[in-house]
């Protein structure tokens, strides 16, 4: 569960970064 949370957090971070970079 701890790893899943970390993965989700990283995924969310990547999506946010991509959105900001695209914008």
Automatic annotation (TrEMBL):
This is Uncharacterized protein. It comes from Rhizophora mucronata (Asiatic mangrove).
């Amino acid at each position: 569960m701890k790893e899943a949370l970390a993965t989700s957090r990283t995924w969310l971070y990547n999506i946010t970064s991509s959105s900001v970079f695209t914008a």
